[in-house]
Design brief:
- The complex is a heterodimer.
- Chain A is mostly helical.
- Chain A is built from twelve helices and two strands.
- Chain A has a two-stranded antiparallel sheet with strand order 1-2.
- In chain B, helix 3 runs parallel beside helix 5.
């Protein structure tokens, strides 16, 4: 019984981490068809922003909930202005450019902070489930993932910016004929995607070892989840995260964490073979 | 003159389509442009709206040079565009499509949408419907209504009758005639449907091989020989 609760918490944690990891990427890929291979580095920058400001004496919550998204959001806007905006509509070129960018960011961070593992203590402490212990921070991550999905949905559904973003995604030329400047919409959207990724990096900082190359550990998972999810940003990310998070955690529980990842990737390959357009194009076609 | 175009040239890549178009449009005037497929009608519209760069010539909106202006600044300057194929936002509801017409105003004034809907009563019961679920005719009405929400001084209307049921074509003609008197909007109308263009235009320019080659009065379109001589277009 207790073990069942622990396992359920693990599954929830796995799903929540995937949602946090993927949301920024899904926004940037889903709305702008830019394959951002520097996504993992945006996460890493969010984690470093959290560590550096926490070590400088900033409250840990402010560091990860405010400073990390703000900093990475600004980085995102600079990257969009200096690099991405010249490459819209050129899928392969954006991959190459952002891959180069990821190498550059890893190099810069290694030069500044060194190739050592940094970390921040996990806040909130733990609680007991029978003879097992679990951390309250896990529950906090689950709550943040829910909050993130809820806020992105509310923004897309109810705000003027959400309307503008959805319309521009469907038909940028007609959005321009309404007097909008699509390049501005893209810049803001890229910035928001980057900021959400920075937030994810900040939130995952207390539960991961922070090194300049940590992005590589996340990027494959993030991409297969976004591709598995399909074109609907929210329904796709949520459904693919739920599926892959569950598979990953249960497989890790039954075997080892390494095999858990292997089984996750195998199931992703099978899923994409069966539903090449992703889960959302088959089951949630009208969703956001 | 709300719009004056002089020697406008443009094309796709290295293929020239417009070979020097000159035309003048007075405020509140409805101008028809008639021509075969491939003569440059849609290219003219796309160049006027700023989607294709002009390779030569000059375009002025209310005396202000806009030859190099972006599409969005032309739209903010009062140019509305209803493209061929309508291009409504398929996954937005009818209401959301109309709200997109208001995006450049500082405050979203739903009264504007009310006024526009009064012109197109057929859309009123469809407000919650997805744009993509509408019939072709309804989509055309929506595209026009969305354009009117931007409060244009000039509408570029590209083949609105293509693939649309006749009852809605009549409705569009009536609405557009009403708009001319009530709002004083000018319009450039590109068409192949002679009846439609004759009902709406005050004068009609003939476009052939990317040039304006003549001008007709609407009643002259009733004369099949004259039309085929000018346009090279067979009439039924």
């Amino acid at each position: 019984m207790d073990l069942g609760i622990v396992l359920a918490l693990d599954v929830l944690n796995g799903i929540a981490s995937l949602v946090l990891l993927c949301m920024g990427l899904a926004i940037i890929f889903g709305m702008m068809k830019v394959i951002n291979l520097a996504h993992g580095e945006f996460l890493m920058l969010g984690a470093y922003a959290t560590v550096v400001s926490a070590n400088a004496g900033v409250n840990i919550w402010i560091a990860m909930l405010v400073i990390a998204p703000l900093f990475v959001g600004i980085v995102g806007i600079v990257v969009e202005r200096c690099l991405i905006r010249f490459l819209y509509g050129r899928l392969v070129d954006t991959m190459l450019a952002t891959w180069g960018l990821s190498l550059l960011i890893v190099g810069l961070v290694t030069t500044v902070f060194g190739n050592t593992i940094n970390g921040v203590p996990t806040p909130l402490g733990g609680f007991a489930i029978g003879q097992y212990r679990s951390s309250l921070y896990t529950l906090f991550l689950v709550a943040m993932a829910l909050l993130l999905v809820g806020s992105v949905w509310a923004v897309l559904r109810y705000t003027r910016y959400g309307l503008i973003a959805r319309a521009t995604m469907q038909n940028p030329n007609m959005a321009a004929a309404m007097g909008l400047n699509p390049t501005r919409v893209y810049m803001v959207t890229f910035g928001i995607g980057a900021a959400i990724t920075g937030l994810a990096g900040g939130l995952l900082a207390p539960v991961s070892g922070i090194v300049p190359t940590m992005g590589g550990a996340y990027i494959a998972k993030a991409f297969i989840t976004v591709v598995g999810g399909g074109s609907a940003i929210l329904a796709g990310t949520a459904s693919a995260s739920a599926l892959f998070g569950t598979i990953n955690q249960i497989a890790a529980f039954l075997t080892t964490p390494v095999f858990g990842e292997v089984i996750l990737f195998i199931s992703a390959i099978v899923l994409i073979r069966l539903l090449p357009q992703g889960i959302s194009d088959r089951y949630f076609r009208r969703s956001l | 003159m709300i719009l004056s175009v002089e020697g406008l040239r443009s094309g796709y890549g290295r293929i020239p389509i417009l070979a020097g178009v000159t035309l003048q449009l007075a405020a509140g005037e409805y101008l028809g442009v008639l021509g075969h497929n491939g003569m440059g009608k849609t290219t003219l519209m796309r160049t006027l709206m700023g989607y294709l760069p002009a390779t030569d010539g000059r375009v002025a909106l209310e005396g202000r040079d806009i030859t190099r202006a972006t599409t969005s600044s032309r739209a903010r300057g009062g140019m509305g565009y209803v493209p061929q194929g309508r291009e409504i936002f398929p996954n937005l509801t009818v209401m959301e499509n109309l709200r997109m017409g208001l995006v450049t105003s500082a405050r979203e004034d739903l009264g504007v949408i009310e006024e526009v809907l009064a012109e197109f009563p057929r859309l009123k019961r469809l407000l919650d419907r997805r744009g993509g679920a509408l019939s072709g005719g309804e989509q055309q009405l929506l595209a026009l209504a969305r354009c009117l929400c931007t409060k244009p001084k000039l509408i570029l209307l590209d083949e609105p009758t293509e693939g649309i049921q006749p009852s809605i074509i009549d409705e569009i003609v009536e609405s557009l005639l009403r708009l001319r008197t009530s709002r004083g909007i000018a319009m450039i109308l590109v068409e192949q449907n002679l009846e439609f263009i004759a009902a709406l235009s005050e004068r009609i320019l003939i476009i052939q091989k990317g040039r304006i080659t003549g001008e007709l009065q609407p009643h002259q379109l009733n004369d099949p020989e004259l039309v085929s001589e000018f346009v090279g277009m067979a009439t039924a």
